[in-house]
Write a structure and sequence with these properties.
The chain has about 525 residues and is an alpha/beta fold. The protein has helices spanning about 5-15, 25-35, 40-60, 75-90, 100-110, 125-160, 160-170, 190-205, 235-250, 280-285, 330-345, 360-370, 390-400, 425-435, 435-445, 455-470, 475-490, 495-500, 505-515; strands at about 70, 95-100, 180-185, 210-215, 230, 255-260, 270, 290-295, 305-310, 310-315, 325, 350, 380, 445-450. It contains 19 helices and 14 strands. The radius of gyration is 28 Å and the shape is globular. This is Isocitrate lyase.
Length: about 525
């Protein structure tokens, strides 16, 4: 017997036990509503999706071609349409996640209006968006199941037993749109207690994976901007501990922590940690500081900070704003130490924020990390902040030059030009871009590839195209040819926007509740019927 039929029988028995007072409740309708709401709470979602991530991580460890992907979504509707599209085009949501970008929350979801990615937005907007995304994904489940219920009813009405069986199998084998969200908590929005409190809210909203970075919370910058300031390892590990305690307190024992290091692009620190013995974490962190030797008390100025380092007195170079500077060229070494330390102290995955998408550079750091933590793996930002076209054309140019191939027809600094679009170099660069994720998963330990803010750009691009035509000579034709006709011919369900917003679900529920007296919206005069 199917799960659908089992649930009907369970509700039928429950109705019978009420001595007739529930006779107006249809067990099959109750079953349909229950199956449409598989996840009762955000914690149900967090536990379910954490198990998915752990399974995917193990499969990647066994076979690097089994990497995972996501796109950043700034609204529940965007996340919903993404997952609907994935199921339509690829047949399964397997190994496809959502990413929640702090950058996009700052730019699009703050009550202050658009803000830079500097942790100035309301911290509550992070769990609010997680909850919103899952609300829309659960509604996608309800809508798709509702369509299957209608197919089942139609098959029964026509007496087609084969279609009835197929509909029942589709209901029982239904794959949810609910997938893991990797959620950005920035630098924790305060101290470790603040981090813990926010992490709890995020997990309660459904987050199974929390990404946290090692920047100073009140000086946080976008990973692709200048002026980044890191914290000592002890401070960062305290926040990793805070997130783990939040997972454990809420019963999400498989929760995933993504430790992000910005050290590659961060040349500053706010604090000099206390070293208690040679070789401890503070000693290693301080060894990267740019210092000046202090020979005597005469070398010390008023207000100077002096530390003993490897048996010598040195003065760390301090800027007018009180921050301390790291030695130039130490970024990669600091990244490796950050990553090893994080993994050895509770983190599950790494995020290295780089200045360009270069498999060799990323792979070199991962190789160094794996000498100490063999199963280290990355979440990597395929960032829109990179000029992908120029970067990869230059990488091909450099590879050709090194191989002795003639590159005299190309000017390296001008390779973004449309004049190069049809050249052999540009074609090979596009092939490198196309295979970047598979190459980096294989050669650079990248388990999860994401684009942080793609839907920010797609919204701007599609709006620009529509505005250009609609307010110009094309008028209404711009919408019809650029949007609606494409929706119809590409089978985009959202063309029936009333149905997407829940009109058919509401009609069916009204019938469950009120029977023939239900006032429905989807009758013959509903213009949605024009779309078939």
């Amino acid at each position: 017997m199917t799960n659908y039929q089992n649930t009907i029988e369970t509700f039928a028995a429950l109705r019978k036990a009420q001595g007739g007072s529930w006779d107006h409740i249809n067990p099959e309708y109750a079953t349909r509503m229950k199956l449409q709401n598989r996840f009762r709470t955000g914690l149900d979602i967090a536990r379910y999706t954490a198990d998915i991530m752990r399974k995917d991580m193990a499969e990647y460890d066994a076979d690097s071609s089994q990497y995972t992907q996501s796109l950043g979504c700034w609204h529940g509707f965007i996340g919903q349409q993404k997952m609907i599209a994935i199921k339509k085009h690829h047949g399964t949501t397997s190994k496809r996640y959502l990413y929640l970008s702090g950058w996009m929350i700052a730019a699009l979801r703050s009550e202050f209006g658009p803000l830079p990615d500097q942790s100035m937005h309301e911290k509550t907007s992070v769990p609010d968006l997680i909850e919103e995304l899952y609300t829309f994904l659960r509604q996608a489940d309800a809508r798709e199941l509702n369509d299957l219920y209608r197919e089942l009813d139609a098959a029964r009405e026509s007496g087609d037993q084969a279609k009835e069986k197929a509909a029942l199998e589709a209901i029982d084998n239904f794959e949810t749109h609910v997938v893991p969200i990797i959620a950005d908590i920035d630098a924790g929005f305060g101290n470790e207690e603040a981090t813990y409190l926010l992490a709890k809210r995020m997990i309660e909203a459904g987050a199974c994976a929390i990404q946290i970075e090692n920047q100073v919370s009140d000086a946080k910058q976008c990973g692709h901007q200048d002026g980044k300031v890191t914290v000592p390892h002890e401070d960062f590990l305290a926040k990793i501990n805070a997130v783990r305690y939040a997972f454990l307190e809420l019963g999400v024992d498989n929760g995933v922590i993504v430790a992000r290091t910005d050290s590659l692009g961060a040349g500053l620190t706010q604090k000099i940690p206390v070293s208690r013995s040679t070789g401890d974490l503070a000693h290693k962190y301080n060894a990267f500081l740019e210092t000046e030797t202090v020979a005597s008390a005469e070398d010390v100025r008023e207000g100077d900070v002096v530390i003993k380092q490897d048996g010598k007195l040195v003065r760390p170079v301090r800027l007018p704003n009180g921050l301390y500077r790291f030695k130039a060229g130490t970024g990669e070494e600091r990244c490796v130490l950050d990553c090893v330390t994080s993994l050895q102290n509770g983190a599950d995955l790494l995020w290295i924020e780089t200045e360009k998408p270069h498999v060799g550079q990323i792979g070199g750091m991962v190789d160094a990390i794996r000498k100490q933590v063999p199963n280290a793996k990355l979440v990597y930002n395929n960032s829109p902040s990179f000029n992908w076209t120029l970067n990869f054309r230059q990488q091909v140019f450099d590879a050709w030059s090194e191989a002795g191939k003639d590159v005299s027809a190309y000017e390296r600094d001008q390779l973004m030009s449309v004049d190069y679009d049809t050249t052999d170099l540009a074609i090979e660069a596009d092939q490198w871009i196309q295979s970047f994720q598979a190459d980096a998963a294989r050669e650079a330990g990248i388990f999860h590839h994401l684009i942080t803010l793609p839907t920010y750009h797609t919204a701007a691009l599609s709006t620009d195209n529509l505005a250009k035509g609609y307010f110009g000579e094309e008028g209404m034709l711009a919408y019809v040819t650029g949007v609606q006709r494409k929706e119809i011919r590409q089978g985009i369900a959202c063309v029936k926007h009333q149905d997407m917003a829940g009109s058919n679900i509401g009609d069916d529920h009204k019938e469950y509740f009120a029977g023939e007296a239900a006032l429905k919206a989807g009758g013959k005069d509903n213009t949605m019927n024009q779309f078939g």
